[in-house]
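Repro case for the chain-ordering regression, as requested:
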Amino acid sequence: KAGVTQTPRYLIKTRGQQVTLSCSPISGHRSVSWYQQTPGQGLQFLFEYFSETQRNKGNFPGRFSGRQFSNSRSEMNVSTLELGDSALYLCASSLTFVVTSGRTSSYNEQFFGPGTRLTVL
Amino acid sequence: KNEVEQSPQNLTAQEGEFITINCSYSVGISALHWLQQHPGGGIVSLFMLSSGKKKHGRLIATINIQEKHSSLHITASHPRDSAVYICAVLSYNTDKLIFGTGTRLQVFP
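-- result from build under test --
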């Protein structure tokens, strides 16, 4: 099975521009999550999609948005780029989303893509 | 205070040494991940735990839910184990992954 793929792998933009990143999950996986990794803040959760619906969202401004298509592929968009948006953007796919019941979770392992390194000048 | 704390931040070892990386968290969790990130950025999930202990080859992960603590052990370390190891917990309340800041491990021959 092919792994999670992300395109493009590297991107350079200037402040004020907007950018769209793409993530193709492992075949059969229906959940896609996005993460931002910076040297200062580390890894932070952006959002999660399942069956074309945003299921969960992290604490990021509205400039960060995403969507998921019927084939489970996902895109994230950042508008009006700022210097601080320079980061490695990672997506991860899993079979389904989290279901919690008491202290037991039917949590499926996430498989990470290689990331898109975005530089904002 | 971060909700997920890892120690140490940096670790150097000689090949063959036994290594322990610790993770403490302050939130209720459904599961805990140990992740490995090599230079270049790719992340690999090593373990997903909700209780007890798991072992894959030379790697062992344990979790104590009552003490809100997990450890990752590497037996007979090897230079190819050099990477950043990240602890991440799945918050019981929010269903979101919260990440530790990572432990940078360098193993020298």
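Ordering looks correct now. Chain A touches chain B at residues 33, 35, 37, 42-45, 48, 55-56, 58, 88, 90, 92, 97-98, 100, 103-105, 107, 109-112, 114-115, 117 (CB under 8 Å).
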